[in-house]
Fold Acyl-CoA thioester hydrolase.
Amino acid sequence: MKYIETTIDVRYAETDQMGVVYHANYLVWFEIGRTKFIESLGFRYADMEAEGVLSPVTDIQVSYKKPLTYGQSAVVKTAVLEYSGIKVVYGYEIYNEQGELCVTGSSAHVCVKKETFRPISIKKHFPDWHAAYEKAKREE
């Protein structure tokens, strides 16, 4: 399975009153990791949108292990856990600077036509993406 690592500096605005990263911000970091993963395959989500296709989240899971705080750096590891030709499930692991696991999660996505929100086949409409996802699942 191919992983992409993205480093994010924890900004003050991302923390809560307790001084730790507010829980919903990890979802934003998942999106950053997912976008970088897609770019590592040679694609851009914006190009898909330009063709009238969106990729909404259909499910999201987050498990908090250890807090991150302002001034730390986080490393988001992103991979494709599942891919069916229609649905993609991305997996995420977020580590602190000491390499300690802080957050794990996953997000499931389908591609839909913008006008109708009806699902489409990635395999059929974006064969290059399909091939890249298949390859990413097999890579070590």
Remarks:
- The CA atoms of residues 93 and 104 lie 5 Å apart.
